[in-house]
Amino acid sequence: MSRMKYTLLFAHTYLTDMFLLLFIVLTINVHNGKEALIIPFLLIVLAVMTASSFITSRFRLGRIYFMLPFVLIIALLSGFHWLAALLIAYLPILRLEYLHDDVENTISEVTLIVTFLLLIGTNILTTEETVAHSLHFHVIFLSLALFFFTGRIFIHLIGNGWPMRKNVCMFVTLSGLFMLLGFSLGLVYHYIVFIAKYIVVLLLNGFIFLLRPFFHILENIEIEEPELEEETLPDSEGEDEIRPEFDQDSAVAHLPVETIMVGLFIIAVIAVLYIYYKKRKQPQTDKTGREQGFPASTSVTSQRAKPVQIYVPEERVRKVYFDFEKWLAAKDMGRYQNETIPEWADRLELTDIIDKQRLTTYIETRYSDMKADDRDFRIYKENIRMMKKEIDEYIKEKQKNLRK
Predict the structure, then answer these.
(1) Which pLDDT tens digit goes with each residue over 212-239?
(2) What value does the mean pLDDT of the chain take?
(3) Is it the case that residue 241 has pLDDT exceeding 70?
(4) pTM here?
(5) Fewer CB within 10 Å of terminal CB in the chain, N or C?
(6) Which pLDDT tens digit goes with each residue over 127-154?
(7) Which parts of the chain span the membrane according to its record (predicted)?
(8) Are 119 and 137 in contact (CB under 8 A)?
(9) How far apart (Å, rounded) are the C-alpha atoms in residues 64 and 93?
């Protein structure tokens, strides 16, 4: 992966996840009398990403957590609610820790789905604040969808070996089709939200119906099904446009919404912490990638030892060579992974141990796809037998010299 593609993939994955955090922070701020503060949020997460790249290029990955108190202070001074400030200070750094360890450790698809579900939630469990900032919530989700898909298209076109003109044409075509699809969905967006709200309300009513035998308080509670509202245009006399107002007497208003939300929040926090501490592994950074100036994209889980199933080749010459290399490994003279035969021969100085002609024959036929006849097979087999004999004699001589 080129440096440019790595950087773009890193930034795209990180910023995609930050849209979900922005949605949550906006919800917390507006329900606690704070301003939206979208621009300060974007500046903070971009500054944290830049600072983390600087820190990881010179220090260990864990040092990025030194930014946490500074980010928390900046968020509080910027006017964020204390809970939103805590989320801004911790979650971006946590996400950066895993991305610096493995840039392909992405949850962008989950972010897109969760943000959409939260958008539906703000349209069902409405409050005065969510109604007042409804445009902000919808713009955040639409920006997330646009950024996610166009960014994926652009990143996949980098480094594919195509000419620049073809890449530009492909990007414009695919992005245009995506925007056309988005515009078409925008025309029926009102109906999509209504259908989603209807399905969620139907599921909630079914859940309440199932719990009624156990909870007496739920006997008289039923959420009214949403109605498809049509836009009302001003008449010819110049009357003002009729705007939808927040209805305090709706069925949702009679529910103990705050108690339900607090309970769900506590359950969600406990579940997330349990899963996090159960499955979390200490990130590691490859030393080679550190020397090159950027973290290697080797996953922590992929570095764990896994049993490798070895298949014995069916071709008889290959099978003889397979047994020979297995025999060498037992003598601590085997080849390293990705080590070529000439490199292996130079490392062990095999030219001083094995006859050069036999070694040359082995090198030339080791990866040959040609099937040998009976005569050649006997020659190759005898060649391996003599190589084993010479190596055994060398090992015995070496052990004899060590005893002296």
Answers:
(1) 777 666 666 666 666 665 544 444 444 4
(2) 75
(3) no
(4) 0.51
(5) C
(6) 888 888 888 888 898 888 888 888 887 7
(7) 7-30, 36-55, 67-94, 106-125, 137-158, 170-192, 199-218, 259-277
(8) yes
(9) 7
Question: Tokens for 60?
Answer: 């260990």
Cβ(340)–Cβ(350) under 8 Å?
Answer: no
pLDDT of residue 185: 66
Q: Is 79 left (phi over 0), alpha (psi -120 to 50) or beta?
A: left
Long-range contacts (CB closer than 8 Å, 24 or more residues apart) made by 142-150: 142/182, 143/19, 144/16, 144/19, 144/20, 144/111, 144/112, 144/115, 145/112, 145/182, 146/178, 146/179, 146/182, 147/12, 147/15, 147/16, 147/19, 148/16, 148/108, 148/112, 149/178, 150/175, 150/178
> What is the model's pLDDT at position 391?
84
Q: How many CA atoms lie within 13 A of 280 on its CB side?
A: 11
Alpha helices in 125-256 (DSSP H): 128-132, 134-157, 164-187, 189-211
Locate 135 and state its tokens: 């445009």
| Residue 149, token pair as written in the block | 């898909």
Q: Please compute Rg for the chain using Cα positions.
A: 32
The closest alpha carbon to 108, from 220, 221, 184, 19, belongs to 19
- Which one-letter amino acid corresponds to residue 74? I
Query: Tokens standing for 13?
Result: 């994955």
Spatial distance between the Cα atoms of 94 and 86, rounded to a whole number of angstroms: 12
Residue the block writes with tokens 């008289």: 220
Contact (Cβ atoms closer than 8 angstroms) between residue 226 and residue 201 = yes
**What's the pLDDT at 266?**
63
Separation of alpha carbons 296 and 6, rounded Å = 10
Complete DSSP assignment for 156-185:
HHTTSS--HHHHHHHHHHHHHHHHHHHHHH
